[in-house]
Protein: Probable U3 small nucleolar RNA-associated protein 11
Organism: Soboliphyme baturini
Amino acid sequence: MSDRAGKRVGCRLGRFRCQYLSFDSYPIRSAVTLTTRPPQTHSRKHLGELEKKKDYKLRARDFQRKRNTLKKLSQKALERNRDEFYFHMINCKTENGKVFEKSKSSKEEHTTEQMKLINTQDERYINFKMNMQRLVRS
């Protein structure tokens, strides 16, 4: 932006005289952005700052990317086979077009007798492993 002699240099706002020899020696604390946004008129101040072109381009690209993904997803939904089966369909139900997980019934839970049997099997397994370790050590 400037040459070594501190001559006039160009920037987005026009030409100005640089008081430093190079931009590298410019103090960081007092650095001011060279591109200032034009002020909004008083009657339009409630709308915020004016949008720069690069900001618009970012916003537009983001919008287009989201629009394209929605378009692809809707196309995929149109092309899907309605007779296709997934195991997740067994555990779900649809009401008014919305998918809900089925609640687990009490039939799937273990009874007290089953829990006692499971606990005794666990105790037997632990005793078996302890005996095996004793035999290995001796």
Q: What stands out?
A: Residues 8-14 have pLDDT under 50 and may be disordered.
